[in-house]
Amino acid sequence: MEDTTHLLRLKLVPVQGVPMLKLTADNWPEIEATQARPDDLIIATYPKAGTTWVSEIVDMIYNSGDAEKCKRDAIHVRLAFIEATFPGLPTGVQQLNAMKPPRLGKTHLPAQLLPQSFWDKKSKIIYVARNAKDSAVSYFHFYKMAKVHPEPGTWPEYLEKFMAGDVAFGSWYDHVKGWWQKTRDHPILYVFYEDMKEDPRREVLKLLRFLEREVSDEVLEKILHYTSFQEMKSNPMANYRTIPDELMDQNVSPFMRKGITGDWKNMFTVAQNEKFDEDYVRKMSGSTLQFRTEL
Ligand code: A3P
């Protein structure tokens, strides 16, 4: 692989006012022009909401619970990451274009930046949302290990940036609200990480209904087994271990880190929590969205 160290830890660049990874911003014309298909399925999330988890579940559903088939390639190849852009690798758009339908894709773009074609073609979308506090903590650890991001700074510094929306893909608050709005006029299934933790079977059944697919009880059991945190953590095709340390240093923090709800309590001080809650009420006022920060 070519030396790409000069492309790491770059400053974010705004795309229509939303801070974006520079390489993605540079490739915006290609991303914006992505051509969707009605039978595409897109998993949309704010980073760290459980994208990989739902990706693995959906791939298992598409492959009738055949775990070996789902190990045919790494998760970031089985689903095209639409806005992904990195030198020496096919872009997410190229990856999507090379896929045979029904195509699977993922995106972290806020709703207003999703390429128009996905709205026009009415492609189905699963949006996964996770509470703001656990998202902030998970994203901080991810920033430290995934060097396509700018340096996160200390936790207190990072938390301020998160609250200000000065992180890759912008404001968590705008993201979850923007996609929630879109559920009114587009086939979007909006699911919560906390609900999946609470009752994965119920949530997988929900996904199956949305996808208009049925599986036997035996296949359902397999899907639940192979997409558990422990299984995915040790599965090299799901745990991002195929990505070189230069890009994602799992010695700093593993991709499959803790996989729980409520880890924020180990990071937030009492003062940080009070400030966060106060700011949260302001930013989320007027929205009917409700999140759980503990189970
Ligand atoms: P933590 O950092 O809190 O552990 P994404 O895939 O959107 O980047 O999200 C990554 C987060 O989802 C990480 O959270 C990761 O551990 C968690 N995760 C991944 N697979 C999971 C699973 N099968 N069950 C529960 N959590 C999972």
Walkthrough of the structure:
This protein has helices at 22-26, 28-32, 51-62, 75-78, 92-98, 116-120, 132-145, 155-164, 172-182, 193-198, 200-210, 217-226, 229-233, 270-284, and strands at residues 13-15, 18-20, 41-45, 80-81, 104-107, 124-129, 188-192. It is of the alpha/beta class and 295 residues long. The strands form two sheets. The chain has a five-stranded parallel sheet, with helices on both faces. A two-stranded antiparallel sheet has the order 1-2. It is globular and about 50 Å long. The chain starts with 12 loop residues before the first strand and ends in an 11-residue tail after the last helix. Bound molecules: adenosine-3'-5'-diphosphate. Residues 45, 47-53, 134, 138, 141, 227-229, 232, 256-259, 263 line the site of adenosine-3'-5'-diphosphate. Adenosine-3'-5'-diphosphate is lined by residues 45, 47-53, 134, 138, 141, 227-229, 232, 256-259, 263. It comes from Pleurodeles waltl (Iberian ribbed newt). InterPro entries: P-loop_NTPase, Sulfotransferase_dom.
